[in-house]
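Appendix C: a fully annotated inverse folding record. The material below is reproduced so that readers can follow the format used throughout the book. The structure is listed first as tokens, followed by the designed sequence.
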């Protein structure tokens, strides 16, 4: 059986990691990488590849599709994937008319910078796929080679899947920024420089994530709202008036959500929840 030859269009954060993962697999040859729209080898690289990964920004997928739709490309029997989390395989419809077998291929992973060493961010992760059944089969095989697992998502649900990804990743970073600000402005822990203070809070965050994975969000809740420690919440809110201003709204937003969670966990009753929520409402006048 001939080895698959994969072309990567777009060598940014995801494209560079995918390149390493494919090369590491030893099962798929990377036939080429196209780093920008002006690359003159586009036609020859497309011709010698049977799999094409479009790893450009969401907003640029259409222009790559337009380019591949032109008469100079024969796409018959080629597997073409894009890696967007929010867009569906519909983006690739113009290529189906040219014989391509298409699907979306979304690695549920964060690639915050380009790959600098041969690290595999694909091992043990899930890849959300949707599109032509033949393409899904191929996606399953490629995923297996790079140590990932595919799951099929319905086109109409993809946007909700992407919202979950944003909440699991970007929103966590936004929360962590609040911790960074409090540490740098309010705690100044001796002996901890730069980001090393996260060593203190990371085991707590990691255990919370483990609990959430094994028991779900509701059962994993602990903290002042869960214990009905209303005076602690009042103290937090008071202290945050003297902290970097943008931490208070984050604390309030998440704090209100934990009250609802505590109610769901039944560790507090409705009356207690209402009392805590009133404490939050009183603070709204301190928001800019
Ligand atoms: N990063 C993540 O964590 C992540 C996770 C899952 C899925 N994704 C998806 O993966 C895709 C790529 O995201 P990314 O974060 O890797 O973006 P990125 O770092 O901005 O990389 C995109 C690369 O594509 C290049 N490019 C643009 N148009 C091109 C063209 N016509 N031909 C060849 N190269 C072209 C860009 O060059 P210029 O900078 O010169 O435009 C850039 O180097 C997106 O669809 C995104 O939704 C990303």
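Designed amino acids, in order:
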């Amino acid at each position: 059986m001939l080895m698959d030859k994969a072309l990567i269009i777009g060598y940014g954060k995801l494209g560079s990691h995918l390149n390493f993962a494919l090369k590491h697999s030893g099962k798929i040859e990377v036939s080429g990488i196209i780093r920008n729209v002006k690359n003159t080898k586009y036609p020859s690289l497309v011709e010698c590849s049977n799999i094409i990964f479009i790893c450009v920004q969401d907003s640029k997928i259409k222009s790559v599709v337009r380019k591949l739709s032109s008469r100079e490309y024969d796409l018959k029997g080629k597997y073409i994937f894009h890696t967007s989390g929010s867009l569906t395989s519909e983006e690739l419809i113009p290529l189906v008319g040219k014989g391509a077998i298409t699907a979306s291929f979304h690695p549920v992973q964060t690639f915050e910078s380009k790959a600098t060493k041969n690290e595999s961010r694909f091992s043990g992760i899930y890849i959300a796929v949707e599109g032509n059944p033949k393409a899904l089969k191929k996606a399953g095989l490629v995923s297996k080679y790079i140590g990932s697992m595919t799951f099929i998502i319905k086109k109409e649900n993809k946007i909700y899947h992407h919202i979950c990804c944003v909440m699991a990743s970007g929103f966590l970073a936004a929360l962590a920024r609040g911790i960074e600000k409090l540490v740098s402005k309010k705690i100044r822990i001796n002996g901890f420089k730069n980001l090393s203070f996260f060593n203190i809070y990371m085991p707590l965050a990691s255990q919370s994530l483990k609990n959430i994975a094994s028991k779900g969000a509701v059962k994993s809740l602990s903290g002042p709202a869960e214990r009905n420690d209303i005076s602690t919440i009042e103290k937090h809110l008071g202290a945050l008036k003297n902290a970097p201003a943008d931490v208070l709204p984050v604390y309030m937003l998440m704090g209100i959500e934990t009250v609802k969670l505590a109610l769901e966990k039944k560790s507090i009753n409705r009356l207690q929840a209402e009392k805590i929520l009133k404490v939050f409402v009183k603070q709204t006048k301190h928001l800019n």
